[in-house]
Amino acid sequence: MDGDGETLANLLREERRFPPPPEMAAAANAGEDAFRAADADGDAFWAAAAARLEWAEPWTQVRDWSRAPFARWFTGGRLNVAANCLDRHVRDGRGDRVAFHWEGEPGDTRTLTYADLKDEVCRAANALLELGVRAGDRVALYMPMIPETVVAMLACARIGAPHTVVFGGFSAEALRGRILDCDARVVVTADGGYRKGAASALKPAVDEALEQCPDVRSVLVVRRTGQDVGWTDGRDVWWHDLVGAQPAEHEPEAFDAEHPLYIMYTSGTTARPKGILHTTGGYLTQVAWSHWAVFDIKPEQDVYWTAADIGWVTGHSYIVYGPLANGVTSVLYEGTPDTPHQGRWWEIVQKYGVTILYCAPTAIRTFMKWGEEIPGRFDLSSLRLLGSVGEPINPEAWMWYRHAIGSDRCPVVDTWWQTETGAHMISPLPGAATLKPGSALRALPGIRAEVVDDTGKPVPNGSGGYLVLTEPWPSMLRTIWGDEQRYIDTYWSRFPGYYFAGDGAKKDEDGDIWLLGRVDDVMNVSGHRISTTEVESALVSHPRVAEAAVVGAADATTGQGIVAFVILRGDGGGDTPDGELAAKLRAHVAKEIGPIARPRQILVVGELPKTRSGKIMRRLLRDIAENRPLGDVTTLTDSSVMDAIRDGLPAAA
Ligand code: ATP
Ligand code: MG
What we know:
Elements: H1 22-26, H2 32-40, H3 42-50, E1 61-67, E2 70-75, E3 78-79, H4 81-94, E4 98-103, E5 109-113, H5 114-130, E6 139-143, H6 147-159, E7 163-167, H7 172-182, E8 186-190, E9 192-195, E10 198-201, H8 203-210, E11 218-222, E12 236-238, H9 239-242, E13 255-256, E14 260-265, E15 275-279, H10 281-294, E16 303-306, H11 313-325, E17 329-333, H12 344-352, E18 356-359, H13 361-370, H14 373-376, E19 385-389, H15 395-405, E20 412-415, E21 449-452, E22 464-469, E23 479-480, H16 484-492, E24 499-507, E25 513-518, E26 523-525, E27 528-530, H17 532-540, E28 545-555, E29 559-568, H18 579-592, E30 601-604, H19 618-625, H20 640-648
Parallel strand pairs: 4-17, 6-7, 6-8, 8-11, 11-12, 16-17, 16-18, 18-19, 19-20, 29-30
Antiparallel strand pairs: 1-2, 3-13, 4-5, 9-10, 14-15, 15-23, 21-22, 22-24, 24-25, 26-27, 28-29
The chain binds adenosine-5'-triphosphate and magnesium ion (MG).
């Protein structure tokens, strides 16, 4: 995919380097030793990681790849995920430790210790049993960011009923599609939740979705906002009535390591969402290990915060399962970052003494747009480590994060992974790695990643290609729910024997990996293949630009022409954008990357279309740039954004 290594080398020209802080290096949970151990014996490495959990029955085989690409890990082993996340901490004297400092958007708060959470989960497990849910039955969750969401997930896990969490922001139609796809019979929801300063209803979407889901027999409803709800007698039941009446004792049953834990639908950034199936033993092993190693978790001291929605895989692995398996204290926040003011996150960091913050580049670029004086008003000195996930992080956004949030002191770990991988795959270990802004560096211990060319051969250092994973890993997806053929076709067919991630990447002269965005998004301009990430990073490196999205639009002379949508920085001067600025930005890209990457068109917009997890949906921008009707918008956060962009555009777009 790298048609012209020379003109497109701008990310590789990034020369800033940040060695680990000496205190972190001295006390790091994992470093070069872990790489050495995993390189010497991968199965022994993962067996040791699995031994951090509590098993009711030991496994007989670590990895079984005999039916590739269908993997089995820890064959014969049995465990209960909820007991690993809760019961063993309570039993071993950690029951009084706070599991979650929950902060509602209106400012109401709740503190749940590990003992509190265990009691609630036992009650909810008993309630689900009373509703007739049995091991293997699917339960759909359509919830706000409240403690009951975590409780419901763990209650499902405790009784072996796979959950499927659907973002609270999705439409009735999206919810219905997912309920039908996995054939869920019970739905857990709430009257509503708080977002952007107001109660936002959830129950009506459930009611609408269920008009066409005849097999759903029960809806368990949490009262969060107190707003009026429609009620179907015999089907709907209040959480406080049913769960509240249950005993806080429930004996956890141990499930097979390959028992299904959950189905999570992908973000839908590029296509119709796929129901990704994760199972029990391998998933919890890798999620717990990666959380502990990548975030250097010290459970007695840290206050950990993944500022993301639970309805995204990041929430599953790094709000719920990883942090609880490691017994750390977390923050859980219900609402949006600008309610009631643009400093809300920083106020939360200050209030709870957050030590580790994990969020998406989209949030960081939004904060850049708002300006660094906003976080500057708060005491962020408790922070010691920052993480990024979800999209390539532009070097300038990385630098801003490290500087404005991390006081030039905190390492930033850029973690590459996917719904399908279940856990971190490529990421620095903060106590060991010398960081490069914009690079996820190399595969974690026990993980094998490669960048290959069209024929599947590894590219030399200094070149780009397709990112693949060359060996199975414990938390890998086991299939696409109900569609084994799509699983094989999507991931295992492009390069036989390798998992194809769908992302492009480059290896620098040290062999470190730089993610370049989706292969589907790569542009072809006069025969040169140009990545969206590189052009976007060049735009974001201009002081006026906070965020950029770039697409290739059909062009009569060049094949594709580059069209850039940009959002300007709040502190970069709010004057109306004009032809002069566009010309400056086009020249800036030409200087940073090369004349071939100069955008044909630059359009200043107020917002970009994003998924609920904050990913830019370039395919919709391509529809606009090519004057087509929009494709599937069901996973878009806010569909009015598309109208606003369209209305603001010159007719030629
Ligand atoms: P769909 O597969 O339905 O189009 P999606 O790929 O956006 O949706 P996710 O599984 O949530 O769904 O996202 C994984 C993708 O996000 C990766 O394939 C990659 O493109 C991007 N990504 C995640 N983390 C990083 C990162 N640290 N650097 C670069 N890209 C990242
Ligand atoms: Mg994907």
